[in-house]
Design a protein that fits this description.
three-stranded antiparallel sheet
Length: about 425
């Protein structure tokens, strides 16, 4: 066993020029590793607390010196001297030190930075890749990338309600080929938009963000781009949506394309879209507390479409358990910073998988160059990963890490691919 010798946190910047926490851990064997924590724009109300300084004269109140200080003053004293390989004990110690249900005392950003840095350091000390350290012998499957190449909602300053339009290269034979397909469609989409006289500036996650006449327009342009790139929609490339419906829901009603809509009306809309387009996943199609609506949507669409809970579940085992009991959704979006430690993240994944839910490992809109989630996706054999468009270095860092993992695995590498279509749950 290797002992944690030192823990130190600092404030760095994320991809939106906002501060975030970076933690370095030193082990008795001489290894030093670090991890940084992402931040979301569209966040669920039940997420663990991201502690901010709220001193408006500094970074508009978004500084994280308090969270970093909590690592350096409080968590360090709990972690130094612990065995780095005992991830569960270290995470439990931090949870006890915080003492709240939502990490609101010390901050989930403080806890997660330490948790991820310890895991990375322990893997390095053991001389094995992070995905192998976390996942053991089961770690060998590369996830299908869900690439957000059209941005709307909270991720862009445009008139599009739906937050993310994703391409999903299910038909590829390897991750490397899937990444190439995604990049080629992404570049082709830019040409299509330019030809139509539209802006090709990008949103938070690297996707294009023009104004459109309707939300469905984005799907039409994606279909054109897939075809012009030389691929077949519904065979090589499928589509996915992140609606982020909580963002336009108020008092149980949804304001969508300028109209007031009920849950049933939105479900009708999604049903029609899935008939016209090869959509295999709809994330947060309804609001985070519209449990009855989620039940109805799952009953109608869950047999053929992944209905992904992000704001609904917030990687929180208690909410996931409720979803399982009430048959709300059939897939879990996994964001470690929503819950605050690696141990809790892994438990959430196991809980969802035990009920037959698909899992999708996800970035946040405010990202760093840290590629931890790439290893996590392989470690748990997640069928999908979301980490944005194949552009912007904070997104591409995760894709490039997966390329390296695929090379390391060699002939043992498996790509999830079309196997996910056999059972869309």
């Amino acid at each position: 066993m290797t002992i944690v010798q030192d823990v130190f946190a600092r404030e760095i910047l994320d991809s939106r020029a906002n501060p975030t926490v970076e933690v370095e851990v030193a082990l008795s064997g001489g290894v030093r590793s670090r991890a940084s924590v992402p931040s979301g724009a569209s966040t669920g109300a039940s997420e663990a607390v991201e502690l901010r300084d709220e001193e408006h004269a500094r970074y508009g109140g978004k500084g994280v010196l308090r969270a970093a200080d909590n690592v350096n003053r409080i968590l360090r004293s709990r972690i130094v001297g612990q065995e780095a390989e005992d991830q569960l004990l270290i995470d439990s110690e931090m949870i006890r030190a915080d003492g709240t249900a939502n990490k609101g005392s010390l901050g989930a950003n403080a806890l997660l930075g330490v948790s991820l840095a310890v895991a990375r350091a322990a893997a390095s000390q053991a001389g094995i890749p992070l995905y192998r350290y976390i996942g053991g012998l089961r770690a060998g499957r590369l996830p299908i990338p869900m690439m957000n190449i059209f941005n709307g909602g909270q991720h862009a300053d445009n008139n599009v309600d739906i937050q993310e339009y994703m391409i999903v290269p299910v038909g590829a034979m390897s991750f490397r080929q899937a990444l190439r397909i995604g990049a080629e469609v992404y570049h082709t989409l830019r040409n299509v938009l330019k030809r139509e006289g539209m802006a090709t500036t990008v949103g938070d996650e690297g996707g294009y963000a023009p104004n459109l006449t309707s939300n469905e327009d984005a799907l039409r342009y994606l279909m054109v781009a897939i075809d012009e790139a030389g691929y077949v929609a519904g065979r090589d490339v499928f589509l996915a949506l992140d609606v982020a419906a909580s963002e336009f829901c108020e008092n149980g009603r949804y304001t969508f394309e300028g109209k007031r809509m009920t849950s049933d009306m939105l479900i009708d809309y999604y049903e029609e879209l899935t008939k016209r387009y090869p959509i295999i996943s709809v994330e947060d199609g309804l609001a985070e507390d519209d449990w009855h609506g989620w039940q109805a949507m799952t009953a109608r669409l869950g047999g053929r479409v992944r209905l992904v809970g992000d704001d609904l579940f917030t990687t929180n085992p208690s909410r996931i358990a409720r979803g399982i009991r009430e048959r709300a959704g059939n897939a879990l979006l996994v964001k470690p910073n929503q819950i605050g430690t690696l141990s809790e993240t892994l438990y959430a994944i196991r809980l969802a998988e035990s009920a037959g839910y698909s899992t999708i490992i996800s970035h946040r809109s405010g990202e760093t160059e840290d590629d931890f989630i790439a290893d996590l996706a392989v470690a748990v054999s997640a069928p999908f990963i979301k980490t944005g468009a194949p552009a912007r270095s904070e997104r591409v860092a995760k894709y490039n890490r997966l390329l390296r993992i695929e090379d390391e695995l060699g002939s043992m590498a498996e790509y999830a691919g079309k196997s996910v279509l056999a059972n869309n749950r």
